[in-house]
Amino acid sequence: LDPERSRRRVLLKLSGEVFGGGSVGVDPATVRGIAEQIAAVRGQVEVCVVIGGGNFFRGAELSKAGMDRARADYMGMLGTVMNCLALQDFLEQSGQPTRVQTAITMGQVAESYIPLRAVRHMEKGRVVVFGAGAGMPYFSTDTVCAQRALEVGADMILMGKSGVDGVYTADPKADPQAERLEHLSYSDALLRNIRVMDQTAMTMCNDNDLSMRVFGMEGEGNVTRALLGEELGTLVTP
Ligand code: UDP
């Protein structure tokens, strides 16, 4: 924790798939549940959020189906913005003031990404939701997590997963012997090809001394518990 700061500051990563509740689009009941869990830590933890866009489009998949990769990636980025707006809406309904900042300028919809302003929002108790990825094709929302967390001085990344509650020695769905790891280093994950997040993102976290907790979003109150610093899932450190 930064000694200048009274509260912990975390970046929460949510997968787009969770927002879709298993299909394309946004499942309002699911997003409401997540928003309520974030709003529950109001005033106790400074929170910024990055949401994926897998419930709408993944650039790599569209590109495989014949689209130009960069254009497909822009579609992916625009999808993340819809998730951000949905989360903002339910956070505000839960009494949690929220600002969305996007890496692609769209003034009617959200603020532009301005790091110092994002920090100020968090200091004032607002949640900041970062949308449109890095604004650059060929990047992932994982990489954006690492970059944003570093730039706004987050103490750690909290990576919420669906269908799995941490990092395992093997794929727990395929291998019954798979065991959940309490702790893992980025270099181990890279060496053993464990895809906690993509390699660019892991390298960035490793090189800049940023830790991450990988936890399952399904358990009752898990998002709140992770935000409050409970030791759920797996801790990944440099
Ligand atoms: N994307 C991009 N640049 C970025 C972030 C995202 O091009 O900086 C695009 C990319 O096409 C990606 C899509 O947005 O497939 C959705 O993001 P991601 O796949 O990371 O979402 P998740 O799998 O976490 O839901």
TrEMBL record:
Keywords: ATP-binding, Cytoplasm, Kinase, Nucleotide-binding, Pyrimidine biosynthesis, Transferase. UMP binds at G53, D73, A134, G135, M136, P137, Y138, F139, S140, T141. ATP binds at K13, L14, S15, G16, G54, R58, Y168, D171. It is an enzyme of class 2 (transferase). InterPro entries: AceGlu_kinase-like_sf (IPR036393), Asp/Glu/Uridylate_kinase (IPR001048), Uridylate_kinase (IPR011817), Uridylate_kinase_bac (IPR015963). Pathway: Pyrimidine metabolism; CTP biosynthesis via de novo pathway; UDP from UMP (UMPK route): step 1/1. Pfam families: AA_kinase (PF00696). The keyword ATP-binding applies. Its EC number is 2.7.4.22. It catalyses: UMP + ATP = UDP + ADP. GO terms for molecular function: UMP kinase activity. Its main location: cytoplasm. Residues 9-215 form the Aspartate/glutamate/uridylate kinase domain. It comes from the Bacteria. Homohexamer. Belongs to the UMP kinase family. Catalyzes the reversible phosphorylation of UMP to UDP. This is Uridylate kinase. The gene is pyrH.
